[in-house]
């Protein structure tokens, strides 16, 4: 795991098409903005806890 320190309006780029920006930092939360390609689905970790093969199958099921 990599750990980054960012402030509001700062971000990082992952790969060639994922950009994460810190929008707000509260006392007990951080709000992030995530930009990614249209063909890349996004899921919250607490909703989907599967290995990558199962996530691919779930994404296909959600899209159909």
Low-confidence parts: none
Share of residues in strands: 25-35%
Number of strands: 3
Would you tell me the overall average pLDDT? 82
Number of domains: 1
Task: Considering the chains and any ligands shown, give keywords for the structure.
64 residues; alpha+beta; 3-stranded antiparallel beta sheet; 19% helix
Structure, explained:
The protein is of the alpha+beta class and 64 residues long. The chain has one domain. Helix content is 19%, strand content 28%. It is built from 1 helix and 3 strands; from the N terminus they run βββα. It has a 3-stranded antiparallel beta sheet with strand order 1-2-3, with no helix packed on it. A hairpin with a 3-residue loop joins strand 1 and strand 2.
Write the layout of secondary structure elements.
Blueprint: E1 11-14, E2 18-25, E3 30-35, H1 52-63
Antiparallel strand pairs: 1-2, 2-3
Short description:
Helices cover 19% and strands 28% of the residues. It has 64 residues and is an alpha+beta fold.
């Amino acid at each position: 795991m990599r750990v980054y320190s960012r402030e509001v309006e700062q971000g990082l780029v992952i790969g060639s098409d994922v950009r994460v920006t810190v929008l707000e930092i509260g006392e007990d939360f951080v709000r992030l903005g995530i930009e990614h390609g249209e063909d890349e689905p996004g899921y919250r970790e607490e909703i989907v806890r599967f290995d990558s093969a199962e996530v691919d199958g779930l994404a296909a099921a959600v899209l159909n």
